[in-house]
Each structure stands twice: as structure tokens, then as C-alpha cells.
Amino acid sequence: MAENEIVTVSTKFQVVIPKRTRRAGNVRAGQKFTVFHSDGQIVFVPVRGIKSLRGKFGRMDLDDVRDHEDRF
């Protein structure tokens, strides 16, 4: 179960993600997040790289892929 932790917004509007939360969310330095607000809450969602999608859609039939010359 998730535990709540209190953080403080600095004068530069920065927030430190607590260690326990970083570990639980596998957050790394330099990682990017999409930030949005919903119903009075601020939500951070990790941006997933294209590599994380590898294998999600099964094999692709390469006969359906057009060559560069076929586009014109």
C-alpha cells in the first residue's frame, strides 16, 4: 500500500521526491515526466521511451511497410 509523504516546494518551485518514493517508482536522475493537474491535484507521469514499447504489438509483417520510394 502506498504511504503518503510530505514534501515542500522551494522558492524556485522545486520539489525533492522522497527516497522511498523514488525507489518504489524506479525514478532515475534526468528522467522526464509529463505533468498535469486534475481535480486540484498535480500528477507526474513518467515519459516512456520508444524502447519500452518493444514487443508490445507482436510481430509486424514487413510486406505492409512501404519503402521510401513508394511514398511519392
Shape: elongated
Tell me what portion of residues adopts beta-strand conformation. Answer: 15-25%
- Name of the CATH architecture: Ribbon
Mean pLDDT: 84
Relative helix content: under 10%
Separation, N- and C-terminal Cα atoms = 55 Å
Q: Whole-number radius of gyration?
A: 20 Å
| CATH topology annotation | Pemi-like Protein 1, Chain: D
Low-confidence stretches: none
> What is the total domain count?
1
CATH class: Mainly Beta
Order of helices and strands: HEE
Strand tally is: 2
Query: How are the strands of the largest sheet arranged?
Result: 1-2
What is the structural class? mainly beta
Largest sheet: 2 strands, antiparallel
Any overview of this molecule?
The chain is mainly beta and 72 residues long. It has a single domain, classed as Ribbon (Pemi-like Protein 1, Chain: D). It has one helix spanning 19-25; strands at residues 33-38, 41-46. A hairpin with a 2-residue loop joins strand 1 and strand 2.
